[in-house]
Write a structure and sequence with these properties.
The protein has 413 residues and is α+β, with helices and mostly antiparallel strands. Helix content is 28%, strand content 26%. The termini are close together. The structure holds flavin-adenine dinucleotide.
Length: 413
Amino acid sequence: MAKVVVAGGGAAGMMAAVRAAERGHDVTLLEQNEKLGKKVYITGKGRCNLTNGCDTEDIFAQFQSNPRFLYSSIYTFDNYRVMDFFKEHGLKLKEERGGRIFPVSDHASDVIRTLSQYLKQLRVEVCLQTKLISVKTKDGRVTEAEAIAYPGKEKKTWPVDGLILAGGGCSYPQTGSDGNQFALCQKLGHTVTPLRPALVPFNTKEDYIPQMMGLSLKNVTLTIFDGKKRLYEEFGEMLFTHFGVSGPLVLSASSKVRECTPQRPLTAQIDLKPALDQEKLDRRLQRMISEGANKQFKNLLSGLLPAKMLPVVISLSGIDPEKKGNAITKEERAGLLKLLKAFPFTITGTRGFAEAIITKGGISVKEVDPSTMESKIIQGLYFAGEMLDIDALTGGFNLQAAWSTGYLAGECV
Ligand SMILES: Cc1cc2nc3c(=O)[nH]c(=O)nc-3n(C[C@H](O)[C@H](O)[C@H](O)COP(=O)(O)OP(=O)(O)OC[C@H]3O[C@@H](n4cnc5c(N)ncnc54)[C@H](O)[C@@H]3O)c2cc1C
């Protein structure tokens, strides 16, 4: 029986502790918060989209960084085994749109309760308000974990045969995933690839974007360019906010495009009418204009666009709002058509970690054995979850990676 410490009581750490204890090890789970799984509570808007019901081989395409690194862990504990695990421990599950799996209760707390109860049953020692602060090694092997226990701030040490680090990324730091374990890993000789927010809204440049704050667009196509190069194009839903844009299309775009700044921005356009090609939309505009020949331009477009967008489109079209329909020129109509098919804006950056669903970057996977999750640098040191340089799109895939890497680390420690 080995002495195992798991640092981080999130999704990956809880699963790692479960598996290590199932294998008969003496396991201590350290969590700096006052409770386990604080981030899991807020996943899936409090409902926890804990995995996806897709074919297992389709999971890898959802990962934007290092999908091959995950082959062993995901095939060891795949999405169907995750579902079986939770069902066997009394949690009923259901599948929703896009294969998203949720607890039938719609309560993320039930996912945590299921894991907490099983940890208790397995006699895992859970130390809350206890933060790992240093790791000792000897001859390239991990030997001791040192933590600080709040509120008295007393220090505690554990001699260890195995240490699993599962401190999460940097996003939503108020949940405890504040990136503090990266410094520990760097001290141990590990490389941390550049960290940046992903699945995160964009800041935009133009003043007219916040004017449409609160407006959600459904069935539009968002395209993002780096100069002339098309980086992203997808159909779906997005939202205007007081700082820029958000919503499903924008979040997935943020995981796929390069980093941008006000000095190195990206340009974007929205096809507001993707179901109509240029010709069809032009015919529709001609009809609207001829039917409203005596109406002012500002009153012509109401059937075509949401009310919040009308003043912006009218202003950007450059057409005098008082102008009568029958006075609108062919060139003006062409300009309007272009605006509807390619409504433009500029992306100057992303929002910060506080608003990012996940973190891109992390422990370089080159230094981790994908078939065990063990460090290639320090023996007995393992990694699990979002602190690794892996990140997926939404749909339950990030939690799947946490369960799978946690399980494999617990299996191999
Ligand atoms: C708003 C939001 C919604 C999301 N919704 C979904 C979803 O529906 N489906 C999905 O698949 N993914 C979702 N995600 C992503 C998912 O929550 C994460 O990818 C996942 O929780 C990562 O698990 P983890 O165990 O690696 O890290 P975390 O769950 O972040 O856990 C890390 C834990 O380690 C603790 N810790 C850190 N340092 C120390 C230390 N030194 N000592 C002791 N403890 C420490 C932290 O307090 C924390 O509890 C969502 C994320 C957010 C922010």
